[in-house]
Amino acid sequence: MSEVKKAFIERLFARQAGPLQAFLYRRVRHRPDAAELAQEVYLRMLRVADPEAIRNPEAYLYTVASNLAKEHARQQQRDRSALDIDDPMVQAQLADLPPPGGELDDQRRALRLRQVLGELSPKCRAAVVLAYWEGLSYEEIGRRLGISPHMVKKYLSQALTLCRRRMARLK
Predict the structure, then answer these.
(1) Whether residue 101 has pLDDT greater than 60
(2) Which sequence spans correspond to the domains of the chain?
(3) Domain 88-168: which topology?
(4) Degrees (nearest 5) of the Cα angle 125, 150, 39?
């Protein structure tokens, strides 16, 4: 990356850092998220091939920020619709195994579960295996996968949501 390009972006951010964070905070209402999104705006601006060709850099900056805030809102909505695997009701449902001799035999259910788990991302699948087959805690899984315990919880929640949806189709 050229030093001129980097200097241009740094000057832009020096002038707009406070207003940009305030802009993002008004949209996400969580200061750490606003700060993280501002960092992502900076990184995306650094990826622009020729930032000096942008006619109105401030408007472009806020357009990038606005788009990131929208992406963040969509992600938050997906996260809220996911299951909370720490919820006692969810834990009770997981512990309550279906009675043997149901409509589907065990082999068919196990095959379907393997297929559903195969649809997960590699890290998500690894988190499921480490949690449910090896019995590791969120912290232990996070250390092994190089992610935060919070991200482990998100992966497990996503996996459970997907499994519930896909396995429900078998009934």
Answers:
(1) no
(2) 3-81, 88-168
(3) Arc Repressor Mutant, subunit A (1.10.10)
(4) 110
Total length of the chain: 171
Alpha-carbon gap, residue 98 to 70, rounded angstroms = 41
Q: Looking at domain 3-81, which of 1.10.1740, 3.40.50, 1.20.1260, 3.30.160 is its CATH number?
A: 1.10.1740
Which of these, 76, 73, 96, lies nearest to 27 by C-alpha position?
73
Cα(153)–Cα(130) distance, integer angstroms: 12
E strands in the chain: none
Give the model confidence (pLDDT) of 39-87 as tens digits: 999 999 989 888 878 899 999 999 999 999 999 988 887 776 666 677 7
**Tokens 């060709």 appear where?**
53
**CA distance linking residue 141 with residue 79, whole number of Å:** 20
The pair of three-digit structure tokens given for residue 137, joined into one six-digit string: 């805690």
List the structure tokens of 43. Answer: 């990184």
DSSP conformational letter for 133: I
Rounded CA-CA distance 86/106 in Å is 27
